[in-house]
Amino acid sequence: MSTLSISGILLISMALFAGAVVPIQAASNAILARHLGHPLWASAISLLVSIIVLIPLLFIFKVPKPNFTLELLSQPIWIWFGGIAGMLYLTSALILVPKIGSTTFFVMVIAGQLMISALIEQFGWFGMPQNPIPVSKILGIAFVIVGVLFVQFSRK
Predict the structure, then answer these.
(1) Considering the domain boundaries, does residue 9 fall inside one?
(2) How far is it, in rounded angstroms, from Cα 26 to Cα 103?
(3) 13, CA 20 to 30 Å: which among 1, 22, 122, 156?
(4) Which of 147, 19, 156, 27 is nearest to 90 (CA)?
(5) Which of 105, 103, 108, 107 lies closest to 93, judged by CA?
(6) Residue pair 47/85 in contact by the 8 Å Cβ criterion
(7) How do residues 40-68 score in pLDDT, each as one tens digit?
(8) Is residue 139 in some structural domain?
(9) Residue 23 Cα distances to 1, 40, 45, 94, angstroms
(10) In total, how many domains does the chain have?
């Protein structure tokens, strides 16, 4: 997206909102883990709540039934990694946020996301379109990583 339009601004705002709720998720799940006695139980409950909220949305938005065919089984194994990654992220957040703090955790998450996203774009991994990364984007990611170092090492 190289130009800003009303729809572009709306999409960017939605992404900002999506990012803004993630620290709330981490903090609430960390407290849930403390009360349940183990982070994996908090992950399980959080994912169960997600399913409970998601199922009515499928009906409200009249989402067509999924296409479960044998072709699905012949797809690359990495198509299933999203669920594993979600569980790993969720569990990592609720274990690490109370120990290293929300700011440090999320700055590190953002740095990791930017680095892997750039590699995915550069090489077209996971079936994504290949999009060479310009030097300006590499510099932007480098500035974020420098920011990560400032946040991490400014702790008392």
Answers:
(1) no
(2) 11
(3) 122
(4) 27
(5) 105
(6) no
(7) 999 999 999 999 999 999 999 999 999 88
(8) yes
(9) 26, 18, 17, 10
(10) 1
Amino acid identity at 120: I
Give this prediction's pTM: 0.75
Per the listing, tokens 């130009």 go with: 3
- 38 sits in the region (left: phi over 0; alpha: psi -120 to 50; else beta) called beta
CA distance 135 to 138: 5
Q: What are the pLDDT digits (tens) for 84-108?
A: 999 999 999 989 999 988 888 888 8
Structure tokens at 120: 């995915």
The answer to whether residue 5 sits within a structural domain is: no
Domain carrying residue 78: 22-153
- Please give the single-letter amino acid code of residue 43: S
Angle at which helix 102-123 crosses helix 135-153, to 10 degrees, equals 160
Residue 97 lies inside a defined structural domain of this protein: yes
